[in-house]
């Protein structure tokens, strides 16, 4: 049996969508961001801000001039929580910022949508230099 037959297509799709949300071109498009987020989306940002689908889409679109450094994803893990829900966890690095991230994706109206996201600064960012 070829190895690719063991790949969970749901996980592949959710990872693809998660990576899209990290792309500056996508983040600048309010409607595209909202299409990837569940209507009940909530994010606990590394800054301590709690975001909804509306507030994060507006914030990202209004800061389109800040492209920032690309996000490097490492140690990406996916766990199926059920037939229509997947948890992603990973380490993200953008410039000098390092964070631990988790996202819960659910199937909603026949599409995968991010329901929850949390970013937490890694300990190395919090230590005095």
Describe what is shown at a glance.
This protein is an alpha+beta fold and 129 residues long.
Highest-level CATH class: Alpha Beta
Radius of gyration: 15 Å
In percent, how helical is the residue content? 25-40%
Mean pLDDT, all residues: 87
* Largest sheet strand order: 2-1-6-5-4-3
Identify the CATH architecture: Roll
The CATH topology? Nuclear Transport Factor 2, Chain: A
**Record field, number of beta strands:** 6
Looking at the structure, what is the overall shape?
A: globular
In terms of DSSP E residues, the strand content is 35-45%
Could you give the order of the helices and strands? Answer: HHHEEHEEEEH
The tally of structural domains comes to 1
Largest sheet: 6 strands, mixed
**Which structural class matches the secondary elements?**
alpha+beta
Q: What's the end-to-end separation, in Å? A: 52 Å
Number of H/I helices: 5
3D architecture notes:
With 129 residues, the chain is of the alpha+beta class. The chain has a single domain (3-126), classed as Nuclear Transport Factor 2, Chain: A. Helix content is 29%, strand content 43%. It has helices at residues 9-21, 24-27, 30-36, 53-62, 123-126, and strands spanning 37-44, 50-52, 72-82, 85-94, 97-108, 111-121. Strands 2-1-6-5-4-3 form a 6-stranded mixed β-sheet. A hairpin with a 2-residue loop joins strand 5 and strand 6. Helix 3 packs antiparallel against helix 4 (53-62). It is globular, with a radius of gyration of 15 Å. Residues 1-5 have low confidence and may be disordered.
């Amino acid at each position: 049996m070829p190895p690719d037959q063991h790949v969970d297509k749901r996980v592949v799709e959710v990872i693809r969508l998660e990576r899209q949300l990290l792309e500056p071109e996508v983040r600048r498009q309010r409607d595209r961001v909202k299409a990837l987020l569940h209507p009940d989306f909530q994010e606990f940002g590394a800054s301590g801000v709690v975001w909804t689908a509306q507030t994060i889409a507006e914030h990202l679109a209004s800061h389109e001039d800040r492209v920032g450094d690309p996000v490097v994803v490492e140690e990406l893990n996916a766990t199926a929580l059920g037939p229509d829900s997947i948890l992603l966890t990973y380490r993200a690095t953008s410039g000098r910022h390092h964070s631990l991230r988790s996202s819960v994706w659910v199937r909603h109206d026949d599409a995968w949508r991010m329901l929850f996201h949390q970013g937490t600064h890694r300990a190395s960012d919090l230590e005095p230099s």
